[in-house]
Every structure is written in structure tokens, then in C-alpha cells.
Design a protein that fits this description.
Helix 10 packs parallel to helix 11 and helix 11 (330-341) runs parallel beside helix 13. The protein has 463 residues and is an alpha/beta fold. It has 16 helices and 18 strands. The chain folds into three domains: 2-60; 88-93 and 100-289, Endonuclease Chain A (Endonuclease, Chain A, 2-Layer Sandwich), CATH 3.30.870; 303-462, 2-Layer Sandwich (Endonuclease, Chain A). Strand 14 and strand 15 form a beta hairpin. It has helices at 2-30, 36-48, 50-60, 88-95, 113-125, 142-156, 175-183, 251-267, 273-276, 303-314, 330-341, 357-362, 364-373, 404-408, 420-435, 447-462, and strands spanning 106-110, 130-135, 160-166, 187-191, 206-207, 211-214, 218-222, 244-248, 290-295, 318-322, 326-327, 345-351, 376-380, 388-391, 394-398, 402-403, 410-417, 438-439.
Length: 463
């Protein structure tokens, strides 16, 4: 018995040490830049439950795709020199992986679901050579079926159609749903399918971008996926609040470049020149009207977090935020609290109850701390899926939530609008949502509730 006990302890310690060594080596080699709390959590798991932690880390532990590897087909951006007349944020974002600021061109903000749907069909129907579509969710409903039908029709018209689906968000999507598009000559791929990415340790990575690019001239993007709840709803689900936009101009070529990068990352193949064309490099605009910031595991720096933290410190008058999930990491949480303490008016609109119950529990500690610091939290009566921020006159609109998954694990894209007029329009829409909401009032929590919230946050760090 003593011999068996000895070998049991020896085996446990061997597996624990092996897991810790693997974590340390892979983190150093792949430059994971993991949050300290997440690192401590992984270490504790390796020590106490190595038989669960080791396979979990092998399959889900990678947070960054090593630059320059076969998984990262595009070169990293080169830090530019500061040019006269360029907005300070434009230069900073280019060092973080953003494309140069462009002239805005024609811009339409879709604050109304019917307007967003009409703009989507108009862009698809107006394509002349190619359509590139990326989504996280594709519903088996009116919107999802119409999207496939219209893309199939465009493929039959001779348009090159490429549809990129996230491997997890579109897991329920069966091949039979996509058959009309494939039979018409369209191309479909799935980004980071969980089973096929187990050996690459990328099963926990998501492509959360929503992009529709037509001919490199027009771009549709924002928070909406292609399902009924993101638009006008149906008898089974109420329509959610959301925000998208479409642009016609140089920014669309940047959106197409991001899609081409994602397609190569998902398939290992670049879009052929006959389908994607040779994109002309848009001329950089010195008045910095709008800029696209792609963020995700292929970037060596967590660019979205850097943008939000910097904007909080630079804000002087107001910060307006609308997001479905508010689970900021410690850096962003502290930046928001410090901004509030120096008398910046901060209003954050979140749904009273989101579509993810665990996310609602996970946000509780953060919203109590923010409220104590002077941040006004507003609980919307219905699901709000929009992702937008206004820092003084600077507006952000895109696909990213204010949670750790969007900040550190998802492929996201954010449009930065520099013109005060656009900032005012986005701010007006957020204020309208705030007026419909109820002010959050923090209440004392029980020990059991506090422990449960801590467990949910701890689990979140593993992901």
C-alpha cells in the first residue's frame, strides 16, 4: 500500500510539473501575453487538477497565433512616423495593427433594423464582381435563408461569392442549409472549427467579425449577425437593439483586405486574383475621417484593449458606452474608474438581462465597482446587442463587446470615426437607449453570491 501511495504521489507531481513546464515554455515561445490572474489560475489548475488542466490547456490554451508562422499569412504592420495633420490616435492605432485612416466617403449608420436590412440587400444586389461575407451567427430563419438565397442568386449571376462562418457560432448550420449557395458556385469556409483545431490548440478562438464587402468599394459591418433577432425579430423572438453601418469609399478596400486575411487564416489558401482582384492601395487621408482596427490573436499586442484604455485616459468631458456584455479586465476597469473620478461623465447602457446568463453574473462585480466610482450604469429593458462607444467626439462602432473574450480571444473589427458629426449621431442614439433604461443601484451581496461570482470570473479567465 505504501508503494502504491508513493507511486500515486510521484505520478501526480510528475504530471503537475509537466503541465507547468509546458505552460511556461509555450507561453514564452508563442508570446501569449496572458493576464497575471489568468496565469495564476492556470498554474493552480496544473498543480491541483493536472489531469483536467493539462488536456484543457493542450486543446484550449493558446491565446495568440505566433507572428510569421503558417497560421499568420499576413506581415505585421510597421510603425509609421507621425505626419503633420494626422490625429494622434490614428498614428497610435497603426502601430497596433490598424490600417491607415481614410476619407470617410458616403456613410450610413443603421440605427433602425429595417434600415440595416435594406442596406444589406442593396449592397448584395449591387455587387458587380465579388461578394465577401463574414458572420459569427447564421440563423435558420427568414434573415438567414434570405441571405443564402440572395448570395446563391448572385453566384448564378456570375459574381464571385465567398462566405466565411465561425466554426462555433455557426456550429448548428448544416451543410444542407448552404447547399443552394455551393451548388450555384459560391464558396463556403468555417473559421476555427473546434474539432479540427484541437491539435492546433486553437479551439477557443472565434472569428466574431461581421463584414459584407462588395467589389472593394462598399462595406457593411457592425454588431448584427444574420438571424432574425438582430433585425426585425419574428413570432418566436423579439428584435434586439443593434447598430451597424455601411460605407462607400476607400474604407471598403480595407474591409476586403481583412476578409482576405481571415479567409487565408481559415483555409490556408489566399483568394485567387480572379476572384478577389488586385486591390488598389487607397490613398491615406490626412483629415483622418475613419479608420479600421482589426484585433485578435494574430496581433502581437491586444490592440482593442489598448485603444479603449487610452481613450478613457484621454477623454475630458464624456464617455458613452453601449454593450451587451460588460466584463472589463482590470486595466480597462481601472481606466474607467479613474476617468469617472476626474469628473468625466460616464454612462454605460447594458441589457437588464442578456442572452447569456453567466455573463450577467460575471459582470456584477465590475458594475458595482464602477457605480461606486461614479460611473452611471443603465439597465435596458430588452436585449441590446449594439457595440459602440463615444469618447468626447470620437466614436467607435464595430463587432467587439466589452468583455475578455472580445478583448483577448476573438477576431474583431472596430471602426474609429474621427468626425465630431458622426460622434454626435452615435451619442444621440446611445442617449436614446439610456432614456429608455433604468439606473442601476448597487446592493449588498451575500457571501454565497460573492463566491459564485468569483467562480464564474475564475472560469472565465481559463477561457
Amino acid at each position: 500500500m505504501k508503494l502504491l501511495a508513493f507511486w500515486g504521489v510521484w505520478l501526480h507531481m510528475t504530471v503537475s510539473i509537466l503541465g507547468i513546464l509546458m505552460y511556461v515554455i509555450s507561453t514564452h515561445a508563442l508570446q501569449q501575453h496572458r493576464h497575471p490572474a489568468a496565469a495564476v489560475s492556470w498554474m493552480l489548475c496544473f498543480f491541483f487538477v493536472p489531469y483536467l488542466a493539462l488536456p484543457a490547456y493542450l486543446f484550449f490554451g493558446q491565446r495568440k497565433i505566433r507572428p510569421g508562422s503558417a497560421d499568420s499569412p499576413l506581415p505585421l504592420p510597421i510603425a509609421p512616423a507621425m505626419a503633420p495633420g494626422r490625429h494622434w490616435l490614428s498614428t497610435m492605432l497603426m502601430t497596433l495593427g490598424a490600417l491607415p485612416a481614410r476619407a470617410e466617403g458616403r456613410l450610413a449608420l443603421h440605427t433602425d433594423a429595417a434600415q440595416a436590412e435594406a442596406a444589406l440587400w442593396r449592397l448584395i444586389d449591387g455587387a458587380r464582381s465579388r461578394l465577401l461575407v463574414s458572420t459569427y451567427v447564421l440563423g435558420d430563419d427568414r434573415i438567414g435563408r434570405m441571405l443564402i438565397e440572395r448570395l446563391a442568386q448572385r453566384a448564378r449571376d456570375g459574381i464571385d461569392v465567398y462566405l466565411l462562418l465561425d466554426g462555433v457560432g455557426c456550429l448548428p448550420v448544416r451543410a444542407s442549409w448552404l447547399a443552394p449557395l455551393v451548388e450555384a458556385g459560391g464558396h463556403v469556409a468555417r473559421a476555427f472549427p473546434p474539432l479540427r483545431r484541437l491539435l492546433h490548440r486553437q479551439s477557443n478562438i472565434r472569428n466574431h467579425r461581421k463584414l459584407v464587402c462588395a467589389d472593394g468599394l462598399r462595406l457593411w459591418s457592425g454588431g448584427r449577425n444574420f438571424a432574425d433577432e438582430y433585425f426585425t425579430g419574428n413570432a418566436e423572438c423579439e428584435a434586439w437593439f443593434d447598430l451597424t453601418f455601411d460605407v462607400e469609399g476607400p474604407l471598403a478596400a480595407d474591409g476586403e483586405a481583412i476578409f482576405r486575411h481571415d479567409w487565408a487564416l481559415a483555409t490556408g489558401l489566399s483568394l485567387p486574383a480572379t476572384a478577389a482582384g488586385e486591390l488598389e492601395e487607397p490613398a491615406e487621408s490626412m483629415d483622418s475621417d475613419v479608420q479600421l482596427l482589426p484585433s485578435g490573436p494574430d496581433q502581437p499586442i491586444d490592440s482593442l484593449e489598448a485603444l479603449l484604455v487610452t481613450a478613457c485616459f484621454r477623454a475630458r468631458r464624456r464617455i458613452l458606452i453601449v454593450t451587451p456584455y460588460l466584463i472589463p479586465n482590470s486595466s480597462l476597469l481601472q481606466a474607467m474608474m479613474l476617468a469617472a473620478r476626474r469628473q468625466v461623465q460616464i454612462d454605460v447602457v447594458i441589457p437588464r438581462r442578456s442572452n447569456h446568463r453567466l455573463a450577467d453574473y460575471a459582470r456584477s462585480r465590475a458594475i458595482r465597482q464602477l457605480s461606486t466610482a461614479g460611473v452611471r450604469i443603465w439597465l435596458a429593458p430588452k436585449m441590446n446587442h449594439a457595440k459602440a462607444c463615444v469618447f468626447d467626439d470620437l466614436a467607435l462602432c464595430g463587432t467587439a463587446n466589452l468583455d475578455s473574450r472580445s478583448l483577448f480571444l476573438n477576431f474583431e473589427v472596430t471602426a474609429v470615426f474621427y468626425r465630431a458629426e458622426v460622434g454626435a449621431r452615435v451619442a444621440s442614439w446611445i442617449e436614446a437607449r439610456r432614456a429608455e433604461s433604468q439606473r442601476y443601484v448597487p446592493r449588498p451581496v451575500t457571501l454565497a453570491r460573492d463566491l459564485f461570482e468569483g467562480a464564474v470570473l475564475w472560469l472565465g479567465f481559463q477561457l
